[in-house]
Design goal:
Keywords: Hydrolase. One of its GO terms (molecular function) is hydrolase activity. Pfam families: FGase (PF05013). InterPro entries: N-FG_amidohydro (IPR007709). The chain has 276 residues and is of the alpha/beta class. It has a single domain (2-274), classed as Aminopeptidase, CATH 3.40.630.40. It contains eight helices and 13 strands. The protein has helices at 6-14, 51-54, 61-67, 72-76, 118-146, 178-193, 216-224, 249-274; strands spanning 2-4, 19-23, 28-32, 38-42, 81-85, 105-106, 109-110, 149-157, 169-172, 205-207, 228-236, 240-241, 246-247. A hairpin with a 4-residue loop joins strand 2 and strand 3 (28-32).
Length: 276
């Protein structure tokens, strides 16, 4: 893996270079093993938290971990194009627009002891801006090359905080063209519902049950690229103990193995349906 500047990463994409890179400020990684009409993203996988924020932060390390999406990068790591955040969403949230990306409060609790200085906040916002420059370049290249593209936007959610039964998988579709893409969305939901988990974990997949797909990542791509479908795909945190901060490696491995087969198959179905 190379450490590259934003301009170097974008130049590589424009020239269709195959590469593995971390941004020069270590805020995100991008792997491109081959140029294919689908990409995977794990924008909330990151846990890094800048040291100049530690003393001012009212949330502890566990609070941050609880709201992040651990292991989501690992779940998609085998695929040809993988974009993943390295920083915690508590520094800046890549799934929120720039004006809301740096939290004042987080999940009902004040985040900072005192207001962030402008230069400290701007440093975080610059990372958000750079990330979306790369997103734009990547999707533009894939649409240019293939005509259409599908992005698997991987997230996880804390199912134990719900007071009702919730699905193992949730697809958020409220901001995509369901008249055009409804059929392929249903094929993805159906495929996810068929995954068999270890440890007697129930498998189910629903659309707009717990979340509706209101994230900025999906909205940004959908607004700027008319032939790219973003599938906001949330897995309940059945792969870990949310309370005791324990990952279940056998469950993560099951997701990795299943997506290794199901995701490219679905991407192929998408391409066959929507490419001219």
């Amino acid at each position: 893996m190379q450490k590259l500047s934003i301009s170097q990463i974008i130049r590589n994409i424009e020239n269709e270079v195959v590469f593995h890179a971390v941004s020069s400020d270590y805020s995100f990684t991008l792997k491109i093993d081959s140029y294919v009409p689908y990409a995977c993203a794990a924008i909330h996988d990151g846990h890094q938290f800048r040291k100049d924020l530690w003393e001012n932060c009212l949330h502890n390390e566990y609070d941050r971990w609880y709201e992040e999406d651990p292991e989501t990068k690992n779940m998609i790591a085998s695929h040809p194009i993988v974009l993943a955040g390295c920083d915690s969403r508590f520094e800046y949230d890549l799934n929120r627009p720039p004006e809301e990306a740096v939290f004042e409060t987080a999940w009902g609790k004040q985040l900072w002891k005192k207001q962030l200085p402008k230069d400290i906040k701007q440093k975080s916002l610059n990372k958000h801006l750079d990330f979306y420059k790369v997103v734009h370049a990547l999707i533009a290249k894939l649409e240019e090359k293939f005509g259409v593209c599908v992005v698997y936007d991987m997230h996880s959610y804390n199912w134990k905080r719900w007071d009702r039964e919730v699905p193992t998988w949730n697809l958020g579709t409220s901001n995509i063209d369901t008249k055009r893409f409804g059929g392929i969305v249903e094929l993805w939901r159906q495929s996810l519902s068929e995954i068999n988990f270890p440890n007697d974990i129930k498998s189910s997949a629903k659309i707009n049950d717990t979340f509706q797909g209101n994230g900025y990542f999906l909205k940004y791509i959908t607004k700027n690229f008319k032939n790219t479908l973003v599938l906001a795909t949330e897995i309940a945190k059945v792969y870990c103990d949310e309370v005791n901060q324990i990952i279940y490696p056998e469950v993560v491995a099951t997701v990795i193995d299943e997506l290794k087969i199901r995701l490219p198959k679905h991407a192929s179905e998408f391409y066959n349906m929507y490419s001219e």
